[in-house]
Amino acid sequence: MSLFPVFRKKNSGEIARNRLKLLLVADKADCSPEIMQMIKDDMVRVVSRYMDIDSDRIEIQMKKLKQPDCERFIPVLYANIPIRDVPDKGIY
């Protein structure tokens, strides 16, 4: 067990698994894997400004949700972002 798991190098299986997850999510959402990766990268960058997060375990899902008042489906973005720590004081 590493003292600093953040700095450990990902193995190829872990990288392939993450890429496959992004492809599956992108396929369900009619959105390209590149766009999904850009969304994930932007979310990591923004949220990291305010709290310490585990960027390796972030899960992004895009689903189609049926509107209750009509037959339309709208895309919905879900993000599961594990938070390690929230600083007591502001960063700025």
Your description of this structure?
Keywords: Cell cycle, Cell division. One of its GO terms (biological process) is regulation of division septum assembly. Belongs to the MinE family. It is a single chain. Strand 2 and strand 3 (73-80) form a beta hairpin. This protein starts with 11 loop residues before the first helix and ends in a 7-residue tail after the last strand. The protein has a two-stranded antiparallel ribbon. It has 2 helices and 4 strands, in the order ααββββ. The longest helix is centred in the N-terminal third of the chain and has 17 residues, at 12-28. Helix 1 (12-28) crosses helix 2 (33-48). The protein has 92 residues and is an alpha+beta fold. The chain has one domain (12-84). The relative contact order is 0.15.
Topology, number of strands = 4
Mean pLDDT: 78
Number of helices: 2
Number of domains: 1
Structural class: alpha+beta
Order of helices and strands: HHEEEE
In what range is the share of β-strand residues?
15-25%
Shape: flat
Gyration radius from CA atoms, angstroms: 16 Å
Unreliable runs: none
Helix content: 25-40%
Specify the biggest β-sheet: 2 strands, antiparallel
Widest beta sheet: strand line-up? 1-4
Quaternary structure classification: single chain
**Amino-to-carboxy terminus distance:** 34 Å
